[in-house]
Amino acid sequence: MILCADIGGSYIDFAVADNAHQLSDRRRRPTPVGSMADFVSTLAEFAAPYDRGLPLHVAIAGVCDPQTGHTRSANIPCVNERPLRDALATRLGRPVVIGNDAHCFALAEAMQGAGAGHRIVFGVILGTGVGGGLVIDGRPIVGAGGLAGEWGHGPFIAACADPRAVPALRCSCGQLGCLDTIGGARGIERLHLAFTGQGSDSQAILSDWEAGLDHPRHTMDMWLDRMSAGLAGVVNVTGATIMPVGGGLANRPRLLAALDAAVRSRILRPGTGPIVVPGHLPADSGLVGASWLKGGPVAAP
Questions:
Q1: Torsion of Cα atoms, 203 then 206 then 207 then 212, to 10°
Q2: pLDDT given at position 182
Q3: What's CA 205's distance to the chain center, in Å?
Q4: Do 231 and 124 contact (CB within 8 A), yes or no?
Q5: pLDDT tens per residue across span 19-59
Q6: Residues whose CB is less than 8 angstroms from the CB of residue 135 and which lie 6 or more positions away in sequence, other chains included
Q7: Gene3D superfamilies from the entry (predicted)?
Q8: Is residue 108 part of a domain?
Q9: Do the domain assignments include residue 107?
Q10: Are 124 and 95 found together in one domain?
Q11: In the prediction, which pLDDT does 161 show?
């Protein structure tokens, strides 16, 4: 068995995974984002009833450097630049493995979800922002500093004076014109505001677009154009044959179908079937993916 935790900025989900990666003993508590001591104590309390020989595998909304064990998370400030892996292993007295939550989503989908049977799987997160994870032959690929799969960052959108062009917005990573600025739910809202001057909820924008109304058409055309360009580049570089999608926008089948069609129209590989598809394990992907981690993620050569 493996003890598993899926840690976000709001909650810690805990479960026990058996050797078939089925979950049991599920529990949840609010994440203590302001205190490292409280954060570690919460996980220690979850793990306390179980044999010390059982490891704890963690999916976290952040990056854990596989070399140093230091962690960075925008939503859990108490762990920033702290040796979280070592702190947990010392306090819990058991082996600890930590993976990024997007990488764990991709791993869960590769092993048990929409990507089962595919050698190269790229998991896509379309939530508040965008993220991703690359899995090859059942192993998550993680680069220097714990980073990989961050297809939403980089100056992909050029600054342009044309009011109908996609605006190059400042990203939280510090760069100008990242896809992350327009890619998630908040990004659709920013894009719509830039084009129409209307502050609308992303769900309302998407519902109106699905209903065929005129006012969100340009917003969504531009969103599909830029997002499909980014994902087509990922397919061409990695050779991924499936892209399971998680996050809130994964619940919009027409949006994913339109994104899939746009991606397939731009990749080099001809005659392929669907690539961008809904994930099969949205509620359990963090815990399931954590259970599949093998002594830590694999660093890319």
A1: 170
A2: 86
A3: 23
A4: yes
A5: 999 999 999 999 999 999 999 999 999 999 999 999 999 99
A6: 103, 106, 107, 110, 115, 120, 121, 122, 123, 141
A7: 3.30.420.40
A8: no
A9: no
A10: no
A11: 61
Q: What's the mean per-residue pLDDT of the chain? A: 91
Structural contact between residues 189 and 199, judged by C-beta atoms closer than 8 angstroms: yes
- Nearest Cα to Cα of residue 42 among 25, 30, 56: 30
Please give the backbone phi and psi of residue 98, each rounded to the nearest 5 degrees, phi first.
-125, 135
CATH number for position 30? 3.30.420.40
| Domain that includes residue 9, residue range | 2-100+284-299
CA atoms within 13 A on the CB side of 21: 19
271/216 same-domain check: yes
**E strand or H helix at 120:** strand 120-126
Spatial distance between the Cα atoms of 49 and 52, rounded to a whole number of angstroms: 9
Question: Residue 168 and residue 182: Cα distance in Å, rounded?
Answer: 9
Tokens standing for residue 148: 């990989």
Q: Give the pLDDT score at 243.
A: 98
- Residue 105 domain-assigned (yes or no): no
Is there a single domain that holds both residue 272 and residue 133?
A: yes
Q: What are the tens digits of pLDDT across the range 112-144?
A: 999 999 999 999 999 888 999 999 999 999 877
**Which residue from 137, 109, 127 is spatially nearest to 277, judged by alpha carbons?**
109
pLDDT at 178: 84
Query: Which pLDDT belongs to residue 146?
Result: 73
| DSSP letter (8 states) at residue 77 | G
List phi, psi (to 5°) of 97. Answer: -125, 135
pLDDT at 295: 65
φ/ψ (deg, to 5) at 258: -65, -40
List, for the chain, all residue ranges whose pLDDT scores fall below the cut of 70. 158, 160-161, 163, 295-301
